[in-house]
Amino acid sequence: NAGVTQTPKFQVLKTGQSMTLQCAQDMNHEYMSWYRQDPGMGLRLIHYSVGAGITDQGEVPNGYNVSRSTTEDFPLRLLSAAPSQTSVYFCATARLATNTGELFFGEGSRLTVL
Amino acid sequence: DAKTTQPTSMDCAEGRAANLPCNHSTISGNEYVYWYRQIHSQGPQYIIHGLKNNETNEMASLIITEDRKSSTLILPHATLRDTAVYYCIVRVGHTGNQFYFGTGTSLTVIP
Fold first, then answer.
1. Which pLDDT belongs to residue A39?
2. If contacts are CB pairs under 8 Å, which of residues 27-46 in chain A contact chain B?
């Protein structure tokens, strides 16, 4: 079982470039989400999804787009990267229909925007 | 809106119990309290959760006050590997759709 897989692990972009961070899970979890973590800070929720075709905004959605066409994948798109988006990005998933609701995290994607 | 308040940092002697407090004074009746920890820059790891009863598992114990406005995570015998940032979060029901992490407590276990 791979769990939650994020790619790429590291990426350097120039201001204005676009890119997609990939998140894939093999646990059949309904819930998927994206967080960003800036140095010395906690995690902030960007977008989340409770199932294929359903997405919603978190705390800091501006500058990011998401889609959920399958249960397994939840890509995060930066359409025009800005230095303020330099951060570590985490994808997290959970099964919604249980009493535990444990979040499973990927290893993170470190993005630098120059 | 993190909904929880935690001290920024704490120290604990190795082998002693580490008691990490969390205030969640606006918690609603169907909101669960969850604890996670993050070691270095890894993804956070689930520790324990509860609604109103005290809970214990192989990692820790969770004590929730009767009014549910605060809770304490207890690591009974802290080791150096428990040095991490600990996050207390609340989640609406067990199908709540948003987990807000806040800034957490940085716990340092001292030899």
1. 85
2. 31, 33, 35, 41-45
